[in-house]
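Suppose a colleague, Dr. K., hands you the sequence of a protein chain of 499 amino acids and asks what its three-dimensional shape might be. Before reaching for any lab equipment, you can write down a predicted structure in token form. Begin with the sequence itself:
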Amino acid sequence: MRISSLLIAGVSFACFVFAAEPPVKIKGVSPADLRALKFSLEEFTCSDGSKTIPFAQVNDDFCDCADGSDEPATPACKNGQMYCANRGFSSKVIPSSQVWDGICDCCDGSDESGGRARESSPCPNTCKAMAAEARKDQIQELETQREGLKVKEQYIQKAREEFAAKRTELDSLKVRLTTLQAEKSVAEETKKQAEAAESAARAQLEERRKAEEEAKRAANPEPPAEEAAKADESADKVEPAHIDDVHTEATDEVPRDDGLGSASDDVDDFDIDDEEDGSAPKDAPATAAASTPADDEELKPLVDDAPSWMPPPLALAYNYMRGLFGQNATAHASSPVAAAKAAREAFDKINNEVSDVERNIKNIEELFESDFGADKEFYSLKGQCFSVNANEYTYELCPFDKSTQKPRSGANTLLGNWEQTDEWKSTHTKMTYSGGLRCWSGPDRSTKVTVACGRDNRVSDPEEPSRCEYTLKLFTPAACSKEHAMALELELETEEADH
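The predicted structure, expressed as tokens, is then:
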């Protein structure tokens, strides 16, 4: 009983396998698609199930099915497809419109054989020759992958070392920034205090300036109106040729007022050390004898401490300053200004250091956020540029930076800046450079770069498929893949075994 059951099960399984096999092959249909079709030696059902036709109407050069499934090996259905087996090489699918068009699209010639093409010579079978050529290409590609992978390992090692150094540098910069920020706070407070003292000193100088002017007016009262008028008439009679000389002399006699410490400028015309012996310095003002003996006697009790060469009005101002600042009057008058200047310079210096450190930290952090590949193998390309000449232009690609175009004579044209896209992060085979120089009445220039394995770094094949949109190919060892090399090895071994 058990044996009978096994026999029945075996027969049933055999019948199932036989039923699953297509009753006949249909030219232009792949083995996988053939199993999915519903047909017999008598009937054929369109792949969309819309119609069932006699099997004799398949590939009869008349389109019966709306989806074109009944005419895969003729050009009757415009939406049909033909499968080329291409034994010994790679299979291929072409549009049915390319069947019987006089062009050999399939290396086995199946697209031009049968039907209306029988009267013409069939296409020769070139699959074996193409397979041999493809094998040579595969061997060459495998060698490129192997050589590129050696260089890629060097790129990866270099990236590891440099990123480790960058991490150490980043930690050091952050510590340095903390110290500098504390120093900056101290320097800023010092600057505020020094500038406050400077403002007070400026106000004090202004008061002294006013006191000097009052003292001068007291020592030299203005003449009555009649005498002043006569003086004006005398001045009007001065010959024009001598006006410049008079102006020059007058200018030499008047101390310069630069808006800060002009009171001390009067004292700056002499050296404090020269006062001890009462002698006039070499650059003593020419107006020292301008006061009259009567004026000198009147002011003498107020100016006894001043050097003897000073006229009483200037000596009066000098003694006023001595009363405020002691012997080193001039130095004390200018010290708040000098201190404020030094404080500003110190603050600016440390503020610049803080900015430099912050900028360096930002650059390193942005570097860490950039995608240079799973093992940072593309990092070695950063900072390098590669160019290629095409017609009258030179195209230059600086990976992770920009793409440019330069004519034989003229300036560079920006074709785009690096943009880290999702496509790049997911595949590392497509680079995008966008936001280049805007075309006249058009879009901004941009560049798409296809990245492939190469033994060295180079760019090639610059094109402009659309207006202001450029394409380049970048070959680099960084794009070589162990997985792809292993797949090539396996494919070559399989082909060799088949032959």
